[in-house]
User: Fold this.
Amino acid sequence: MISPQTYQTYKNLPPLAGVATHAEAAKPGLGIEECVSRLKRFHYAFKRLHEIFTARITAEPIYELKTGFAHHAYLCAEHVDALRTRIGEMREPPLGLEEVPHPALEVLFDEVRAAPTTRLLLSGIYKCIVDSLLEAIDAYLRETNPLTDAPSRRLLRFAHLELSDIRKFGELAIEALEPAPEWIGWRTATLDPLLVAAMGFDGVSQYGGAITLTTDIPRRFSATPYVYDPIPKRDERWQDSYNQGVNPEAFLYDPAMPSKPKALMMLFKRIREIDVPEMMASILTETKGKPWKFYRDMSRQLWDEARHAMMGEVGFVALGVDWTKARITHNWSLRLNTECTPTERHAVLYFIEQGLMTKAGKRFEWEVGVDSGIPLMATIQDFDWADEVLHAAIGRVWYIPQFENINKALEYGDQCWAKIVSNWKEVKNQGLTNHENWWPAIYRQACEAWGETPDPKVLAYSTTYEGKRADLKEVGVGASG
Ligand SMILES: [Fe+2]
Ligand SMILES: [Fe+2]
Assistant:
């Protein structure tokens, strides 16, 4: 007698295109209505996670967390995108993707977004939200029919994989910093009850005991409306953040200087790019109501810029150089975030990145990398260049169309950048920095590691940013891209 348990495929070939056994596929599983309802909740969770990770990048002082948040925000943005597409395949519009699936979930994310310290934020994100979301995705993967719902399973398996990586990072970070003492109280009085009230991230999980949202669970950290903090902060390894005492562009474009120390200067330019995520996070957080692709594309670029900073870090470490001896300014992100509108910031970013597409831009940096004889430099600059080509394309999609033509868009970017005229003198007069020349300390270390005597001409380099901006025009501040 034929049954799912005994059924034989032709010559015992693997059944059902490899997605399941007959026994597994013969279980009815979830219906479309239930699948859409759960997937919409997952979509909401990834969207809010993306929002929290992004909003907390700028003012998070710890560099390893800043870059971690940049990564996790990007991954969440991709899963939001995939879930939106899948939900659109299962239902006719309107899909209701902007609706809040349950008020308790909204409060839960508001609470975590408003966590007053880094340690509480980490526990709220990774121990509470990510953990429970993984549980709900697990349940979906178990309960849905693997054949009828193969497209959802495919994207949720991938989401599960990346979310597990995210949780691993979070667990290690929490272990390294130790959980905050208030964590247990917050969790038991606020976060867990909210999850119970929402019946988990899938809306079907029973945790025992019904809770009424409004009467039983007062907001704690989100009792007042959330305010995004636009001031970039850095941990204690990043000293003298107003220092603009070394102009790396003037060194890089000086034909009299050799390529090897130029490579070192490029590593400085890379690690300084941590100011781009700090700034882009403000554009993403303060720009509302754009299509999801905008947030996805900009989050990809934000993550690339965090990677560029880490490439600088990796390069310094590989060369045996202590990068904390360099003075890595936050001038650019600070001023753009506090003196410009989100559109003006985007304009400056696009203007800078457009400038990197010329022969004297990323191609030149890659050539210097190759010429330096340091193979890692060639790799770093090769990918940095490719990423910047992508960023220019992202700018063409999301920035340029706001203007009549590309020239008008560029002109506006140039004007916006000029608005941030050099504050070299002001910060010095205010006693915020002496613009100390950190270059010899970095160059000497590299020479020692290379077993070379410092070149006196290179060692004596002391051109500053006084009256200059990074494209060597006579105004403005140091810049990244
Ligand atoms: Fe970059
Ligand atoms: Fe870029």
